[in-house]
Amino acid sequence: MPVLLRVRSAAHSEEGFDRIVFDLSEALPGYSVRYVSRVTADPSSKAVAVPGPHHLLVVLHPAQAHLDNGTATVSGVHPLNLPMLRSYAIVGDFEGHVSIALGIEDRAGYRVGELPGRIYLDVAH
Question: For residue 41, with 0-12 CB atoms within 10 Å meaning exposed, 13-18 middle and 19 or more buried, which class applies?
């Protein structure tokens, strides 16, 4: 199963977007991306505070954010303080689904793409 190894981000101000990159082992998993009005933990459905007034939810499937021995590879809430990307949080790593909430400064257009070993998400300024 693909493992989420790390998350990287950077502002690309001249190009007009912020990028977040999900580095993965093995073949890339499927994924979905959508705006959500409320961020909840998977599977408990408890509310999770993710800095930023708007939120995108990225779900990778099948994938995991831990090693086979149970050690987390990525976890918690991380401030980013980029023009559009304010934070990200791992809000689920359960039964082959990794859920990542992105705190976004404003509801904006986005694009998702793939490169070898990674999935990236660009959020327009």
Answer: middle
Kindly list the distances between the CA atom of residue 89 and the CA atoms of 33, 42, 51, 77, in Å, as whole numbers in the listed order.
Answer: 14, 12, 9, 4
What would the pLDDT profile of 56-68 be if each residue is shown by its tens digit? 999 999 999 999 9
Note the pTM of the prediction, 2 decimals: 0.95
| 43-48 mean pLDDT | 92
**Rounded CA separation 32/56 (Å):** 10
- Residue 16 CA to residue 55 CA, distance in Å, equals 19
Alpha-carbon torsion (83, 7, 90, 95), positive or negative: positive
